[in-house]
Amino acid sequence: MIAKTNANHLWPILLLVCITAIVYFNSLSNGFVYDDLGTIVENAHIKRLGNYLSSFYNQSYFKISGGEASYRPVATLSYYLLYAVSDVNPLGYRLLSFALHIFNVILVYLLAHSMINNKRAAVIAGLLFACHPVNAEAVNGISYNEDLLAAFFFFLAFLSYMRLQPSATEPGYISFILSLFFFLLGLLSKEMAITLPAIVVLYDLILREPVSEKISLKRVRAVIQDRKYYYAGYLGVSFFYLWLRFFAIYNPEELETQIWGRFIDRVIYLPIIFLKYIKLSLFPFPLNADYVFSYPTRFLDVLPVLSLLVVLGLVIYSFFAVRNQKAVSFGIWWFFITLFPVYNLIQIYNPFAERYLYIPLLGFCLVISIFLETLLSRIS
Fold first, then answer.
1. How many other CB atoms sit within 10 Å of the CB of residue 258?
2. Structural domain of residue 190, as residue ranges?
């Protein structure tokens, strides 16, 4: 059965690999760009792997990471290992980003297929993710491979959880342990992975079991009671990471991050951020490596109100879609939930960037693939 399942996925995966390779092959000849210079080329510590081994578990990590402001030791380790192999030849670094994106495209296909059980729609989702222009920043910026790594482990962790089916012959703990392990690696690549527990709960509420009625408090309680030990594992990993990130190995220079606006300004700006990310997903042009923006001065300005109405409309639609379009509802919530770390409610240095969409884009691709599959089915 497993061999047959793998064979069924072979040709779609080969198609996705070939198209992804064609799209990004010309990037392999590019040099270092943006933050690559500080992280790799001008980083004197990267010349000795021993510098990393003696520093990754304490605050001196921030001295040897090439200007990294957050604790992302898995991503930093990849730069050190690549330097040992490629020195300052950008090809080796680009090959890793190239390969990671291909693996992530495959995982998007497998996740989509598991969620909607439709091969053509899953291939469409994979193609959208492979070729979407907004992913170019994460793939082409070597120092942004932290986003690729976080997504890789995030997708693996979620796929492992989805395939967790305890039975008399397969207890399921191996898949669960693997999921927790991948989750931790994702967190140590970039904090964008922190939303996995919420995605797991969302999956159990909407997709794991048939839903014939609206999501109710009673159903939420029943699901949490049934899966509480699994959720406890993800929360345990999350709390361990948060302790590591904010207490054990905390970068004191983060306190010096310039405050671009008051908290209330950032709250007012939040629906605008949503709308901008939705717009970039639907119409990815013009693209920009460094966005400049200003906070709205009043909540009742046109743009905040319009943005809030669009977001509320999507939220309301997602609730109604739970009955008959479960995967669509799940995709919408995936998009909103996985963007949570960059909501900027807690001040971050770059409030808006295209690379932040790398993990959330799976939700967008899932929704669009379902609509396109429905359209194609009606036409044929």
1. 6
2. 2-379
Model confidence pLDDT, tens digit, residues 186-243: 999 999 999 999 999 999 999 987 655 567 788 888 889 989 999 999 999 999 999 9
pTM of the shown model: 0.93
Of 14-23, 39-48, 125-134, 288-297, minimum mean pLDDT range: 288-297
Closest CA to 75 of 184, 148, 178: 148
Structure tokens at 67: 């200007």
Residue type, 213: E
- Nearest by Cα to 326 from 69, 182, 150, 116: 116
Which DSSP category does 54 fall into? T
Number of domains observed in the structure of the chain = 1
- CA nearest to 269, candidates 191, 175, 177, 342: 342
Phi, psi of 348 (to 5 degrees): -120, 155
Give residue-wise pLDDT tens across range 93-118. Answer: 999 999 999 999 999 999 999 999 89
Q: Which tokens belong to 205? A: 């509420």
Q: How far apart are CA 40 and CA 31, in angstroms?
A: 12
φ/ψ region of 172 (left if φ > 0, alpha if ψ in -120 to 50, else beta) reads left
